[in-house]
């Protein structure tokens, strides 16, 4: 299955190049791993696919049942948010999974039309930083950037999966930003575990750079933020590909850095 294909099943289309799923006039970002997982299931629509086959085809190695179940569960949530009733993913006990779509027997594959879109991104930082970035934004720059200074509101937005990158301030109080990065990578949020992540800090300390490498963070943005640099880094981060490590590897990474600066979160920043 080519990464440039669109796997079409009934009214749904899984775009392997854009890492997204489209149903009628709605679409959602899945991330590379879940796109490949759903694409493989849809390629074998109405057929039972074993767990071993999924592991080899999607991860390229043997993975635990828990890992597969976790990603299948999140795929179901995304499909549900699109108000789709045509495609379902069912678990077949002791056998595997099946993507069911009564409208078709086999999926069709067509080449996607190239679409030039600006990457959607979410940013979590303190109110002052959010406001400074908001003031620097112009109508033509970073229109798709949503900013939050309230972690709770950000978590609600993570449920949509309608974004390609998350920018997280690592200097928030109680290591809240660092903990959020770990939570995303270990699948403890509703965001795709393999979503592009950028860290935000006032300096590139050795501890933070080491944390970024271990947590597969795609880049570091240094304050004060330069809008043009931010835009380029988002595009670069989204274009990067990497393979998720086992959760245990991320769990071992400490989230308390000696250079962390305490910044309290306040009310949410308005975006756009």
TrEMBL record:
The keyword Phosphoprotein applies. Gene3D superfamilies: 3.40.50.2300, Winged helix-like DNA-binding domain superfamily/Winged helix DNA-binding domain. Residues 4-101 bind DNA. Residues 120-238 form the Response regulatory domain. InterPro entries: CheY-like_superfamily (IPR011006), OmpR/PhoB-type_DNA-bd (IPR001867), Sig_transdc_resp-reg_C-effctor (IPR016032), Sig_transdc_resp-reg_receiver (IPR001789), WH-like_DNA-bd_sf (IPR036388). Keywords: DNA-binding, Phosphoprotein. SMART domains: Trans_reg_C. It comes from the Bacteria. CDD domains: trans_reg_C. SUPFAM superfamilies: C-terminal effector domain of the bipartite response regulators, CheY-like. Residues 4-101 form the OmpR/PhoB-type domain. The modification 4-aspartylphosphate is found at residue 169. This is Winged helix-turn-helix domain-containing protein. It comes from Agarivorans aestuarii.
